[in-house]
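Recall the central idea of this unit: under ordinary conditions, the amino acid sequence of a chain determines the structure it adopts. In this exercise we apply that idea directly, starting from the sequence alone.
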Amino acid sequence: MLNNDILRSLRYMLKANNPELARIFALAGTDVSVEQIVPWLRKEDEEGFARCPDVVMSGFLNGLIYDRRGKDDSAPPLAVERRIDNNIILKKLRIAFSLKTDDILAILTEQQFRVSMPEITAMMRNRDHKNYRECGDQFLRYFLRGLTVRLMGKKA
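Accordingly, the structure predicted from this sequence is:
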């Protein structure tokens, strides 16, 4: 999935405007202006579209964690990954929204997406673990849709 699609989904889910997104970026120390955000929110076929870089998306997800859970000044700051994939995005969203594996399973079941508990836990493992499983675009898409429904309390 494109980082742009994820950013648009999260913006809708959080009912956030562009200044609010810039505030979330700033929580993780990522300096982004409202003007920089606008091209990232456009669709691929729209005029002025620009790809949202991985490092920026990672910073946004870290800011989302700080926004939703609070920042612990005694703990080291969250790492900003230069390259992110669906698994990292899923893990960071899980942390930001304080979800357990059972919650993820329930969210996907509500969306009629068939997945088992071991499949979800395999996606949470480190890449070099023998039971690691890659998180696909469809899985992440259904998860984002289900999380939106859960947070908004209505159909997306």
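The radius of gyration is 15 Å.
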